[in-house]
Structures are given as C-alpha cells and as structure tokens.
Amino acid sequence: MPPKRRLPYKWPLALDVFWRQYDALMAGNILAFQAEYFNKKQVGHTFEPKLLGRVGYFTTDPQNLEAMLSTNFQGELLPAN
Q1: Cα–Cα–Cα angle for 3, 14, 27, nearest 5°?
Q2: Fewer CB atoms inside 10 Å of the end CB: C or N, the chain?
Q3: For the chain, what is the HEC assignment?
Q4: Per-residue pLDDT reduced to its tens digit, 17-74
C-alpha cells in the first residue's frame, strides 16, 4: 500500500527529526525512540519521511513487508563516497 502520511517536521530538511534520531542512535535506543516518536506523531503503519532532502519509506504493515520480502525488493542504494 502506498504511504498515506508524511512525517511532520519543523526545521528545514527535517533537521529536528534527524537530530533527535541521531541522539537516540548514540544513546543506543534508536528503535525505542522511533517507535514512540512515530506513534506520537500518528503517522500510521506506512509513511514517508523526507530527511535531509531524501525521501524514504517506513512500514510496519505486515502486507507491505510480505510484498517486499516475497518480491526480492531492491531499494535505492546511496552512492559510495
């Protein structure tokens, strides 16, 4: 299913969201932070974040996960530096 919601942010390029996720990553609790934060923002099971100008997709929807895994889904790879 296509995403119905977008992750809201306040600062340009979603730097506020990126900053908070970075802090959570460094503290070793990124998954707990994301689960709580995304639930608080009520973005649903599949949504589109746009962080640092890049669009991505998050999903916890079992049908979406099954579709990606059963079709050998290949996401976009970031260019090597």
Answers
A1: 100
A2: C
A3: CCCCEECCCCCHHHHHHHHHHHHHHHHCCHHHHHHHHHHHCCCCCEEECEECCEECCEECCHHHHHHHHHCCCCCCCCCCC
A4: 989 999 999 999 999 999 899 899 999 888 888 888 888 888 888 998 888 788 876 6
